Amino acid sequence: MSKKRSILKFTILAIFIVIGLVLTFASFDVAGTVYRYNGFVNAIPLGLDLSGGVSAVYEASLSSTANTSDLDSAIDSTISQLGSILYNEGFSDATIVRQGSDKIRVEIPTQEDDPTSVFEVLGQPVSFYLSTNQDFDVSNPTGTYLSSKDISNLYLSYNEDGTDIGIAINFSSSASEIYNNFSSQASNSTTIYAFIGEESAISLSSSNFASANTLFVSGGVVTSSTAAEYCLRLTSGLYPASLSLSETANISPSLGQDAIMFSAIAIGVAVLAIMIVLCVRYRELGLMACVSTVIFAILFAFFLQAVPFVEMSLPGIAGVLLSVILLAAGNIIVLEKVREEYASGKKVPLSVKNAFKKSLWPILDIHIVTLISSILLYILGTTAIKSFAMVLLIGTIVAAFCTLVVSRFLIKWYLPLNSTNAKRMGLKRSKVLSEQLAYEPSSEQTLSEGGENNDEKI
After folding, report:
1. Contacts of 184 (CB under 8 A, 6+ apart)
2. What is the span of the domain harbouring residue 223?
3. Which of 77, 374, 378, 440 is deepest in the core (most CB within 10 A)?
4. What is the pLDDT of residues 61-76, one digit of tens each?
5. Looking at the structure, do residues 348 and 382 belong to the same domain, yes or no?
């Protein structure tokens, strides 16, 4: 690669970095529209401890769908289900705790949508019945029917053509005989009726019986705009404990804007300190690592605001710091290997090539272990731990990419500009080798392990 091409690539990269920094941190009104761009950083959702939110207290009683007569175990199971539902609704930093003997307290961070509507829906569960009788009485069910007790799972889905959104309902194996009977009747042009709460009957045909033990419900009250709400309310009706909303209140952020400012300062100081160390110890090679760090910050901020289920809380900030340290560790491993290779007598291009080759598995080991730990924490942890795990998971992937790909290309583009002045790169020979070269200046070519190949690509 020629010097001109290297300069051109760095110029184009600098333009993209400036654009990336503007998109990451700047906020501005978009000309000619009413839209305001807030930047990647400002678009990252904040958790309860940073933004405040809303709390609700539910009174719990044993549900008619419960498979237990023990209220305590029913409440514990309901708390677990509430956590899953709120997480799927985007409230990844929700807090759900038991209050007293028969109450559940739920706290969620403030979102763009009114969070109190979620509390109202969770506190207004509806029942489900399936029957061949259009005049079926949900308050006094009789005859052959399927009910909420027979449901094992339900979720939003599309029909086979992908044109209509509705609710997919999975029935338990114990209800398969009645379900198959209804499916057969529907195939013979018998209309089957679904009842959601006290709403009017929804007419179903054979096309609604999509597969074994799975029913697709749409039409009637289940429209494209209400399907999500009714799916949530039906799910609420499956809780072992029935919930009744008793009170709601606003929550002030426990940390707030001061915590955000101090956290940003802490992260900024940490990044600046790392950059100073890199530049002092590794000179121009360290400068390439600093550019890689800036690119990491842009990519990291983008993915934090783009990936669902990310909410920046105090544990999340810890995940950011750990990701920055992980990136710095990877770059230091590579640059230290470059120093070792050059000290042993190799020329700069071959030293860089061997350094990345020898650093690959040590860096992958660190990132893979962190990646696995993040996944396990995400699967097994509470909502607060999930926030930390998701941030660390994203940070680990971006850090690995920037260390092994971005830094590699940056150094590759740099070498045509300087591959002989080791002092500018913070490189030096070992003491013994330096003394040997002082007496045998021509021996450096021999010590470089095949000098004719030293210019091969990194």
Report:
1. none
2. 52-251
3. 374
4. 887 666 677 888 888 8
5. yes
Nearest to 358, CA basis, from 382, 327, 337, 385: 337
Distance of alpha carbon 127 from its chain centroid, rounded? Answer: 33
Which domain-ending residue is among 219, 235, 251? Answer: 251
- 127 and 237 part of one domain: yes
Cα–Cα distance for residue pair 247/58, rounded to 1 Å: 7
Q: Residue 189: how many CB atoms within 10 A of its CB?
A: 8
Find the farthest-apart pair of alpha carbons in the chain and give their distance in angstroms, rounded.
105
Q: Do 90 and 235 belong to one domain?
A: yes
d(CA 447, CA 449) in angstroms, rounded, equals 5
Name the nearest CA neighbour of 263 among 316, 308, 309: 316
Residue 335 falls inside a structural domain: yes
Which residues are registered as beta bridge partners of 170?
Answer: 153, 214
The contacts found for 363-367 with CB under 8 angstroms, 24 or more apart, are 363/330, 363/333, 363/334, 363/400, 363/403, 363/404, 364/400, 364/404, 366/326, 366/329, 366/330, 367/326, 367/330, 367/396, 367/397, 367/399, 367/400
Per-residue pLDDT at 410: 96
Do 382 and 445 lie in one domain? The reply is yes
340 in the same domain as 209: no
- Calculate the CA 197 to chain-centre distance: 35
Residue 346 has pLDDT above 60, yes or no: yes
Residue with tokens 């000179």: 283
Q: Are residues 234 and 279 in the same domain?
A: no
Which range in 132-146, 167-181, 206-220, 399-413 is most confidently predicted, on average pLDDT? Answer: 399-413
Q: What total of structural domains would you count in the chain?
A: 2
Q: Which of 217, 251, 285 is the last residue of a domain?
A: 251
Q: pLDDT, tens digit, for every residue of 76-111?
A: 888 887 887 777 777 777 788 888 888 888 888 765
Torsion of CA 44, 49, 53, 58, to 10 degrees: 130
